[in-house]
Every structure is written in structure tokens, then in C-alpha cells.
Amino acid sequence: MNLKSLTLLLTAAAVPQVVVAGPCLYAICQAGCIGLVVTCYAGAGFTLVVAPPLAGPAVIACNVAFGGCTLACAALMFAPTP
């Protein structure tokens, strides 16, 4: 091994590596969001499948919260995990 190769190898080893947890962390986050929205619907007296005319303010609030939760999870797809 020449000096240039050794220098490159040592430099790469010394630089902190960043791993993207993305898909696994995203799946865990989504499972949490689903659990929360099912609980929210149950608290409002509904199941997760509701016909639109029956969707009252509580169900709409659950849907808005679920949308926010899933949006936050989407950001985790690219979050670096040291």
C-alpha cells in the first residue's frame, strides 16, 4: 500500500460517519401516528373508516392531527442518525 492510499484510508476512518435511519425510523413513526389516530377516533365514538357525511368536527380534528403527525414522520426519512 502506498502512502497516498494509506493517507486516504486513515482520513476516511477519522471522519465521523453518518447513517440515515430513514425507512426504519419512518415506519416506527407512522405506526405511532396510526395508533394515535385510532385512539382519537375511538374517543370520538367512531372507527377509522367513517363515511364523509358522518364525519363530525372531532373526526376532522383527528384527521388534521394525523396529517401533521405523518408530515413530521416524512421529515425523518432524511434525518441523519449518528
From TrEMBL:
Keywords: Membrane, Signal, Transmembrane, Transmembrane helix. The chain crosses the membrane at residues 31-51, 58-79. Residues 1-21 form the signal peptide. This is Uncharacterized protein.
